[in-house]
Amino acid sequence: MTDAYLETVDLACERDWRLLFEHLQVSVKPKDMLQISGPNGSGKTSLLRLMSGLMRPTAGDVLIKGISIEQQRNELAHNLLWLGHAAGIKGLLTAEENLTWLAALHNGASREQIWQALAAVGLAGFEDVPCHTLSAGQQRRVGLARLYLDAPALWILDEPFTALDKDAVTQLEKHLAEHCNNGGMVVLTTHHPIQNVPSTFRELDLGQVALS
């Protein structure tokens, strides 16, 4: 019996008639932080999307708590939080409205909790501002505010540091490390060299994964 929360089993991914990786075995346990690295085109984002159930593998499977993703698609939002490379928000909605909608994917949140989350990412006073008027970095922070609400233990993040200033990067690094230290899990891609990592941090370089 494995103690992994997330596992890939003989996972293979083909994009545009090119095999990116195959027979990939990855295990993520509570407190783990796993950085997926590799050159452009090696399949980093594809792997995260496979782990999140947003793509189907060419071969193999992804298990969450020992059960195939295919058998629990209706429950995925309660088992993981996905944050893609884009901010993932609607420009016509306010910061509060966006976060209310996003929080509803998981456990929901009260207005007070949403305002506290926005304040945690430096957006106090911007709650009622339409997001299309915000800077790219502020829009990114609206999406990242989800990480300060009651969210699933597994966070799958594609380039979460994009468009953030130095202080915001430092704060996010600390928050991700604390999440892992408290029993959560983070799988991420980033071109940013992470300075603050938990003791369980490890890296998987897809560029070094041999194709057989």
Layout of strands and helices, then pairs:
Elements (H helix, E strand, L loop, with lengths): L5 E10 L2 E11 L4 E5 L6 H8 L7 E6 L2 E2 L7 H4 E4 L11 H9 L7 H10 L15 H9 L9 E5 L7 H16 L3 E5 L11 E5 L7
Parallel strand pairs: 3-8, 3-9, 6-7, 7-8
Antiparallel strand pairs: 1-2, 1-4, 4-5
Helix pairs in contact: 3-4
Describe the protein in words:
The protein has about 210 residues and is of the alpha/beta class. Helices cover about 25% and strands about 25% of the residues. It is built from six helices and nine strands; from the N terminus they run E-E-E-H-E-E-H-E-H-H-H-E-H-E-E. It has helices at about 45-50, 75-80, 95-105, 110-120, 135-145, 165-180, and strands at about 5-15, 20-30, 35, 60-65, 65-70, 80-85, 155-160, 185-190, 200-205. A five-stranded parallel sheet has the order 6-7-8-3-9. Strand 1 (about 5-15) and strand 2 (about 20-30) form a beta hairpin. Helix 3 crosses helix 4. It is globular, with a radius of gyration of 17 Å.
